[in-house]
Structure formats: C-alpha cells, structure tokens
C-alpha cells in the first residue's frame, strides 16, 4: 500500500475541502469540472496538495540531480490517478502526475465508456524517469531525464480486453479507435504527444510529456 505524503499536506487538503463545502449556504459543493493542468502549479507543495485533494495514490520521494543534469524536482512515485492504477509505480515529477490525472479524468474515463462500453481499470506503461538523451538527438537530455515524460503501451478494461498500441493502433474496431482518440485527447493535456503516427520509434507506445515545447503527433 502506498503511503500518503507529509501530514501537513493532508491537513492543507482537508482545510481546502472544508472551505469549499462551506460555500453556498451549507449545501454540498458540486464536484469540480475537470481542469486542464496549464493553470495549476506543477512543482512544490501546492502541486502535491492538489494530488492529495484529488485522491491520487502516490509517495512523495526525495528530489535529486546527478552530474549529467538528470533529476526530478518535486518527485513522486505514482501508483494511480483517478482510481485507475498503473501496472507498476512510476517515478515522475508532480507536474507529470497532475497531467496523467487530468488525462484520465477528462479523456480516458468518458472515452472508455463511449467507445469500448467498459470502465477503464488499468493503464500500462514502460517507464517515466530515466537518465538518457532524446531518441532524435542523444546529445540532448530527454524529458524522461527530468521525470516529465511517461511512455504508455496499453489500456485494460473491466471485461478483460486490453488495447495495445503495438497491436491495435490500426485496428478499425473499438480498441483501435480508443487508442487513437486517447492519443488525440492527450494533446489537450500534455505538451508533447508522440504516437505511431510520429515515427517508427513510437510504433508501440504513446510518449507523453510536460516539457517546454508543444508538439502533437497523436
């Protein structure tokens, strides 16, 4: 079981929640609409508090930087977003975790019901942080080297079906449609989205990052 971040963050999230609930004459506050991450803090305690308030399952881990310049600011080990677990924990920045949460809430959940007719129950990835250069230019650090990227390979649904990028991207049925629309929808949340439409290096996964550049090849 993942442990929650520092107690003062939980207290801050609780105060925030109670404050919102007290508005409107004591009536329960309506659930907030999904919000793009562009206006939300992506580093520091405020970002972590937002994850806590959204019931994201994660551990706060120690920030680090190595001699190559690789490292993560506001590092977390992410277990699941909005009640959908990852196949294994992934070490990323808080900003990347917030983007995964927004993507899951805004895009993946409604898309799974509309296209597949089943709830999404797991997101499969093959890594977040890794100290390496870019695929296109090894002399420049990848966003993976700062924990600002994740590579997603598949999505699992409640009936046991799994939409795999490597296998179903060109499929004309619901699994292929889900993958393509999930990729396109990610362009509204992440800064860079690279799919099999980008190049052969991404034939089996979706590269999603929150780096400084904007590029949608979903």
Automatic annotation (TrEMBL):
Pfam families: Extensin-like_C
Domain Extensin-like C-terminal: 46-217
Keyword Signal: yes
Matches recorded under PROSITE patterns: PROKAR_LIPOPROTEIN
Origin superkingdom: Bacteria
Record's signal peptide: 1-29
Keywords: Signal
Protein name, as recorded: Extensin-like C-terminal domain-containing protein
């Amino acid at each position: 079981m993942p442990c929650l971040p520092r107690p003062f963050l939980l207290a801050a999230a609780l105060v925030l929640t109670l404050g919102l609930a007290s508005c409107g004459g004591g009536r329960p506050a309506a659930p907030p609409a999904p919000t793009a991450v562009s206006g939300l803090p992506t580093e520091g305690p405020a970002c972590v508090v937002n994850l806590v308030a959204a019931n994201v399952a994660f551990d706060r881990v120690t920030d680090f930087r190595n001699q190559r310049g690789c490292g993560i600011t506001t590092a977390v080990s992410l277990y699941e977003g909005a009640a959908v677990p990852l196949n294994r924990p992934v070490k990323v920045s808080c900003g990347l975790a917030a983007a995964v949460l927004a993507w899951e809430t805004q895009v993946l959940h409604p898309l799974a019901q509309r296209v597949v007719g089943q709830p999404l129950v797991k997101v499969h990835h093959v890594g977040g942080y890794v100290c390496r250069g870019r695929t296109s230019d090894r002399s420049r650090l990848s966003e993976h080297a700062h924990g600002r990227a994740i590579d997603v390979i598949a999505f699992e649904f409640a009936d046991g079906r799994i939409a795999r990028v490597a296998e179903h991207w060109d499929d004309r049925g619901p699994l292929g449609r889900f993958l393509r629309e999930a990729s396109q929808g990610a362009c509204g949340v992440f800064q860079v989205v690279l799919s099999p439409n980008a190049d052969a290096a991404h034939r089996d996964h979706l590269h999603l990052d929150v780096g400084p550049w904007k590029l949608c090849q979903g």
